Amino acid sequence: MKKIFLFTMIALFFAGCAKKGNVYEEYYSFDNGLWERFQKLDFEIPVEKPGKLYDIIMVLEYDVNFPEDKIPFHIIMEMPNGEERIKEYHPRIRSHKGSIYGKIEDGKATQEVVLRTKHSFQEEGTAKINIECFYPKYTIKGIYSVGIVMRRSEKE
Questions:
Q1: Angle CA(79)–CA(85)–CA(90) in degrees, nearest 5?
Q2: Which CATH number goes with the domain that contains 50?
Q3: pTM here?
Q4: Which of 43, 51, 97, 99 is the most exposed place for a label (fewest CB within 10 A)?
Q5: Maximum Cα–Cα distance for the chain, whole Å?
Q6: pLDDT tens digit string along 44-95?
């Protein structure tokens, strides 16, 4: 009986730990690393637990030889209640000395760009994120994927 109780407690502990990972994760991949200039990316995030704190992150995968130091994005976030928040982001992908940021593997770099930390939704429903790249050229060559990840915030 004690063994069953101990096993149950350990299983519940690990089940609780598993919930601390990503709550939502979705990616858009681009064939041959080509993202058309006016191709907008839409993400729909189900919000099931309002009041909880979340970190919302954009994940970029790009060629280490991407010609610019920054990639400009325009992001519209619509809350489940219809409220919109609009912001421009200019994440730096290369340092002033030319070093690539992010994890590098097979000629590609993967970088997380924090959009919001400790964000709390006020009601259940669907939050929407729309991403548009403001790179000045019509076709953006060298971006392989863009994704949105929402995970529970770490407690302070």
A1: 130
A2: 2.60.120.260
A3: 0.82
A4: 97
A5: 68
A6: 999 999 999 999 999 999 999 988 899 889 999 999 999 999 999 999 999 9
